[in-house]
Structures are given as structure tokens and as C-alpha cells.
Amino acid sequence: MEEAKGRSWLVIGASRGLGQALCEQLMARGERVIGVARDAAALRRMADRLGGGFRPLVLDLADAAGVERAMQAHATEWSSLHGLIHNAGIGWYRPFLDHSSDELLDLLQVNLGAAMQLCHALLPAMCRRGGGQLLFVASDLARRPLANMAPYVASKHGLAGFAQSLLREFRPQGIRVSLVNPGMIDTGFGGGEAGQGDGHRLLEPGQLAELIVQMLWQPAGLVVDELTVHPMGQADF
Asked: 118-144, pLDDT tens digit by residue?
């Protein structure tokens, strides 16, 4: 791709699946992307393929202190960002009592705590400029319960409440906040196998990314505050 000349976005969870597709589609529109993930090798491959408009940043969101250090190190650069897409998430289909305490804390930090940290860093500059966009990829489980996924469900309920509250607090400053609640996506989430290609039971990452990018390009006077998307063949929703 040619080097992008548009606005800058911070995409969290960028190295595979939906996050990777979002980076590709933003850059196809001429935008610049800082892609954040733990997988350094995957980010390097993306940088080689996408060109100079893509900046990789290796960061483990489970490390709250590391997130804080990254925010401080990149404060000047990030002050000009137009938007944040928080797409990171971890979770396991497992009885609650089978989780270790460390797993519970890591899940809450990656799925919710890091989103709060990043917004706390980015919102002051957005407010000064009078605009910006925050988009959070949650889950359909942000709006319904499910046995054997209690920690994950709790984190996504929290993310939904956080996003919807931010919208109401920062809308007067011209900041649009959106929440996307996908059903089952064809990725390797939770240790599963990506690339199953069953478009009836699983959402295809590229198609979902296209829908999300369309949300971001609404006229300035509109905000899509929440969107839930399911594959027609998903068994339960």
C-alpha cells in the first residue's frame, strides 16, 4: 500500500483477525494506523506488507504498569490521534472456579482496565481539539449472561457501561463513542482455530471490519452508539 496521509488511529489487538482487518481497511481509506499487540513477529509482517502508514507497537495490555509507561513514552505522538479502536480481548469457556486469581486479574485488565487507561490518556487532547472517536469492540455477551464465561461476561458488561457512559459525558465536546457487540467471529479466540470459513455460523473478520469502518464514517452530526451483529446460524443469542 502507498503511505497513508489521512488521520491517525490507535488500533488495539491489531495482529490478527478483526484487528488486522480493521487496520487494512482504515489504511485503504488513506488513514494512518498505530497497531498494538503482543505478537511482535505478526506486527512486523503487517508493517512489511502495509507500508509506511502502519506503525507497530508491541505491548502487553495485561501489564497495567507497562501500559502506563507506553502512554507516557508516546504522549506527544498520541496527542494528535483522531481515534481509538479497542479490539483486544481474552477469555475462556471454563467453569468460574477453574480460573486462577491471576487469570481473573489479567482478563479484567486486558478487556476493561487497559481501555480505561488508554481513554484517560487520549481524551484530554481530543477535548482540546473538539473532536475524536472511540470505538470499543465488546461482545454480544455484553448484553446477556452465559454460564461458564462469568469473568469474560462481566468484563464485557463493564466495557459496555464504560463506553455508553463516556458517550454521554463527552458528546458535548464533539467526541463520538461507539460500541460494537459481535456474535461469534471466525478467529482463534479462547484457543479455538481460526479460518473455519463457515459464514453461516461465524462472522467473517473482513466483513465485520467493513461494517465497523462504515460506522466510523458517518456524517459529523451522527453517532452509531451501539451495534450488535450476529451470524444467522449462531445457535444462541
From this structure: 999 999 999 999 999 999 999 999 999
C-alpha–C-alpha distance, residues 133 and 212, integer Å: 12
The four Cα atoms 34, 215, 157, 166 give a dihedral, to 10 degrees, of 80
| Domain total of the chain | 1
Q: What is the pLDDT of residues 152-162, one digit of tens each?
A: 999 999 999 99
How many of the other CB atoms lie within 10 Å of CB of 235? 8
Residue type, 230: H
Residue 166 has a CB neighbour count (10 Å cut-off) of 19
- Domain with residue 14: its CATH number is 3.40.50.720
Domain assignment of residue 150, yes or no: yes
Residue 31's domain comprises 8-179
- Sign of the dihedral defined by the CA atoms of residues 166, 167, 171, 172, in that order: negative
Full-model pTM: 0.93
